[in-house]
């Protein structure tokens, strides 16, 4: 599962659970961790070493969706890589860098071209920000965390993107891209990220889908059925990889564990697998087998969807 900040009660609850965790560092902490290595060491002591190994921290996500061209987060962009490096050095000093990978989570707005997927590239005005991060990830053998939402791509362009293509229900190939064929938008979006990384020429960096989901209410094409169909199909689909990476299952985190009734706009309240009152929303489950590739993201409270049906 994924926590967006190191909530101590949540970390205590995860002790000896066997649940692997993306542990988030909020954007508001980036500057202090980037400018003071002692702060990074203290953060690691307080939130990692105090819980490791009884809490299985797999990744540390240093910031979420920071972009140098997004007015709300642009001032933070200068701090992402130094914060990542300081946290990494603190982890490495404990000889845990092979077990706990340090990365950051980006969104699809950093992609400049995504069609066709093989021509995927990052925006020219984010390359000076992102290329050094990709270089670090290559050095540290860490994946890039990417939030991938076919819902937003579809709702922003329903004229050119069909709903079945976005929901994994298209009966036929929709996009032919050389040797690659795409029957769903998720694969096409994800492979455009793979291609964008490859096309930098920096080197091979894996991608983990750190968020994906579909709202059940509050906006265009939001419905209980659409959300249920998308999530159920996503869970089934990611075991098989993408056309560009067919040999590897896609590690994917569902957003989110719970509806968040204090968010805005309205559709942001309705991404949960559970309602805000903790009632299960959807009938599907993960089956009897443990599907390691699909997990859930939660701001604080979370249960383990891998061990019981959701």
From TrEMBL:
<dbReference type="GO" id="GO:0042973">
    <property type="term" value="F:glucan endo-1,3-beta-D-glucosidase activity"/>
</dbReference>
<dbReference type="Pfam" id="PF00332">
    <property type="entry name" value="Glyco_hydro_17"/>
</dbReference>
<keyword id="KW-0326">Glycosidase</keyword>
<dbReference type="GO" id="GO:0005975">
    <property type="term" value="P:carbohydrate metabolic process"/>
</dbReference>
<dbReference type="InterPro" id="IPR000490">
    <property type="entry name" value="Glyco_hydro_17"/>
</dbReference>
<keyword id="KW-0378">Hydrolase</keyword>
<protein>
    <recommendedName>
        <fullName>glucan endo-1,3-beta-D-glucosidase</fullName>
        <ecNumber>3.2.1.39</ecNumber>
    </recommendedName>
</protein>
<dbReference type="InterPro" id="IPR044965">
    <property type="entry name" value="Glyco_hydro_17_plant"/>
</dbReference>
<dbReference type="InterPro" id="IPR017853">
    <property type="entry name" value="GH"/>
</dbReference>
<comment type="similarity">
    <text>Belongs to the glycosyl hydrolase 17 family.</text>
</comment>
